[in-house]
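Fold these two proteins, one after the other.
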Amino acid sequence: MSRGSGKSVMSNLLWKFAERITAQLVTLVVSIILARLLEPSHYGIISIVTIFITIANVFVSDGFGSALIQKKDADSLDFYSVLFFNIGFSCVLYGILFVTAPFISVFYGDGYEILTPVLRVLSLRLILSAVNSVQQAYVSKQMMFRKFFWSTLFGTIASAVVGIFLAYKGFGVWALVAQYLTNTTVDTIVLNRTMHFEIKFIFSFKRLKTLIPYGAGILGTQLLITGYQELRALLIGKIYSSADLAYYDKGKQFPDLIVTNINSSVGAVLFPKMSMEQDDPIRIKATTRMSIRFSAFVMCPLMLGMAAVAGPFVRIVLTDKWLQCVPLLQMFCIVYLFQPIHTANMQAIKAIGRSDIYLKLEIAKKIIELVSLIAVMRISVDAIVISMAVLTAAFTFVNSIPNSKLLDYKFSEQMRDILPCISMSLVMAGIVYVMGNISIPQLPLFLIQVFSGGFIYLVLAIMTKNREFSYIYNLLKSKIDK
């Protein structure tokens, strides 16, 4: 990788991180306020509804979007062909969800009648996502990640105002529905304005057909991943209660908030960059390695640190009514710990054009996960999450196997790249956890733990002369000096 190329990747990566972090800080604050205003059962209803919307959204947002980015010579005809196909298909999917909504309510039983109107209204996001997914593919293709910043920021703030206002006025679950719809609507409108994306009524089925072979592999893979993830939530909501599902989702929310934003930032920047270099394995390996090291430097302390302070965090932020989610939150931190390796390896495989390998890997893993889920699903919700943590650790090795041959980037080399960050994070988290035994009020103790954890990690990074810390420090210093 050339020096200039590395700077371009890092610059876009930092813009993507800025967009995600800013948006999610606002989302986090809103989530905390809403969790105090609403009951866990309200979140349980939304969690059930989003199961079906999320699965349907895979058909709209995945596959063709990735194919547009991966195709070297994609032009406006390709983009508009996908856009109009997505809009038409999303309308069909909305119709299916509209008709089946009452049957879904019956499936969950008494007390879930509100699922029908909620699902029918919230499913309108599918049509908006059909447009937004093509917008995002275009921005990613052109490496214009500054555009994401403003659209996401305006959408998040507008939806926050709407959600909090309606929750305060006692609208319950409808406050969450309005928040989600507002976010997607404003995000799509603002992104369209900032990128000057003008609608042209052109379409080519021939162009669409050329994207199908690659897009089908990505779509199939995402359906497996998303379908299995939502299957767990569906079973928890059916076997246990909406409150149990809310605790599961809330325990997952905070580590997922961090990891999803890091992974989406890394993936959004790396995939188009690697696609440009798909004929040069050496450059792709260098980009993959940089991604793994940088993501691990950021995410390892966040995950292990959050696990160490989970108890006081939930008490202070969400109140005691959410304490049942504490052990789930800690386990989810472990589940997500190795995601940087997974993301970087999968993006490299996709960029080379081997969506077939991507799909085969996920089929094998999902078969194992499904067997595990069936074995533990009636034991407890905790048992379901523990099985996830064990399998995630094991799959870290599985995900690296293809790139051992494709890029000569072996699992042992990947482990050596992230081991320093994991070691520093374990030391930091251990000290922070022990500090939790100090007999002082919860809020001061929590703040002391957080700031001490950050300070300890930075000191360790300086002492060990960590490469990622040095790079970030020099980059920020150069920006300030200017």
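Now the second one:
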Amino acid sequence: MMRSRLVLLVEDNGDDAELARRAFAISRVPSRVVVASDGEEALDYLFAEGAHAGRAAQDAPDVVLLDLKLPRLDGHEVLRRIRADDRTCRLPVVVLTSSAEERDIRESYNEGANSYVRKPLDLNDFLRAVAQLSEYWLHRNEIAWDWSRGAGLPAGEVPGI
């Protein structure tokens, strides 16, 4: 049996967050979803600081779904900080946003996003898109990641050797 995977959903819209939670719940991939409602909360969760100081290592996310339009600290800055830190530089980050602006797409990839997905407006399409993200990023994709060491692993590196 596959272990439960953890998703950090960085989303300030409560309705979208709830829809994403439902989509993950109905997907076939065992997962837990933690929601951060702004960019600062997301970074606090990732780096176990602030309200999340002392977060257990096993509660580190396997993937981040990141909205761009966030209060306090926008998604682009969150992505830059994730990529700038050795502990999170290889953490898979999927931008999940309503923005279709070419500038946001280009900037997200330049900042190191692994994928860019526009949120569908139709409810069923939204649920289907999140379920597909779950299937790919939490089940199909091989993650070169070792949170116990606090850093991403280069492809092919085996921990402890």
